[in-house]
Design brief:
Elements lengths: L4 E5 L4 H12 L3 E5 L10 H4 L3 E3 L6 H4 L8 E4 L6 H6 L1 H21 L4 E7 L23 H20 L2 E7 L2 E2 L8 H10 L4 E4 L5 E2 L2 E2 H14 L3 E6 L5 E2 H12 L5 E4 L18 H7 L7 H14 L1
Parallel strand pairs: 1-2, 1-4, 2-3, 4-5, 5-6, 6-11, 7-10, 8-13
Antiparallel strand pairs: 9-12
């Protein structure tokens, strides 16, 4: 993808900043929309190359003019972090649903042909399956965040049917990498390990997740944007199941920390988020673009640790 005019909402966030970096490096004109509520993760040398607007996607007067002549909209603006989302369910749902509607209206007004949306593997809910989840299984969103994400998937399907705007919903599975903050488990464990403090694991640590390296997720996102039409939903996953206990042990090992691992009860407000088992199938992704994330958790943790040591 090159020489395109592209809007990225939430472009200053973790995944968004990596996406913006790749789009700029590939020779695109990138317009970033972000409230900067959680700071700006875009590298300084990349930030100089983008058209940045500190506005809220829920404000139509602010975003409508920015969609003029745009080829793609990557809608990645969201409220993240289990504790923050659990404490702010109304704002979370408004940010997702109202934000999506305003993005869609701006796209319609400006004849934008395609929207790529950051959904979540959270839409699968508490489904504990004996194999990796595919896009076709019955979903069970149980949190305000996941319900809003699922609503937006349905909204985009309707938008395609009624307005002919191509749309892709990306169900990300535990994306991790450089520039992620400690609202998420991997940077939190690294912070604890570096300071030789106990790594706090909820329950017995047997719950599993599928950790996907951010650059792999961004590559898949861009390939889908270029090559997929109509409305489609895709898992973005590494297809590897890892326990949280094992993750903590790996981080202690890679940092050579003296930290112990403490197993604690999860706060009650986290219940809906404490899924026992989740890992995804990338079969559909590979079928459509001939690519799926391949960086292992061990490789990613080593890269994070080496980067921190280089600072």
């Amino acid at each position: 993808m090159k020489n395109k005019r592209i809007v990225v909402t939430g472009g200053a966030g973790f995944i968004g900043s990596h996406l913006v970096e790749k789009l700029v490096q590939d020779g695109n004109k990138v317009i970033v929309i972000d409230t900067l509520l959680r700071g700006n993760k875009i590298p300084k040398e990349i930030l100089k190359e983008v058209d940045f607007h500190q506005v809220d996607v829920r404000d139509p007067n602010a975003i409508d003019p920015l969609f003029k002549g745009v080829d793609y909209v990557f809608h990645f603006a969201a409220i993240l972090g289990v504790d923050i989302v659990a404490d702010n369910p109304i704002e979370t749902m408004e940010n997702e649903t109202v934000g999506m509607q305003q993005v869609a209206h701006a796209a319609i007004k400006n004849s934008v042909p395609k929207i790529i949306y950051a959904s979540t593997s959270g839409v699968y809910g508490h489904n504990a399956l004996e194999k990796s989840v595919t896009e076709e299984i019955t979903i069970d969103p149980t949190t305000s965040y996941a319900m809003a994400k699922r609503f937006n998937e349905i909204y985009l399907a309707a938008l395609y049917e009624e307005k002919g705007i191509d749309a892709i919903a990306l169900r990300f599975f535990n994306v991790f990498g450089l520039r992620q903050d400690n609202r998420m488990v991997i940077p939190r464990f690294f912070e604890q390990a570096i300071n030789n403090k106990p790594l706090t694991v909820f329950g017995e640590g047997n719950q599993t997740r599928d950790f996907t390296w951010v650059d792999d997720a961004v590559k898949a996102t861009c390939l889908l944007a270029e090559n997929v039409k109509d409305f489609e939903i895709f898992n973005i996953s590494n297809e590897n199941e890892e326990t949280i206990k094992s993750l903590a042990e790996k981080i202690v090992r890679v940092t050579k920390s003296s930290s112990t691992i403490d197993f604690v009860n999860a706060p009650s407000k986290r219940y809906d988020y404490e899924v026992e088992r989740r890992f995804g199938s990338s079969a559909k992704l590979f079928k459509h673009i001939g690519y799926k994330p391949g960086t292992t958790l061990d490789e990613g943790l080593e890269r994070i640790w080496n980067h921190q040591n280089d600072q």
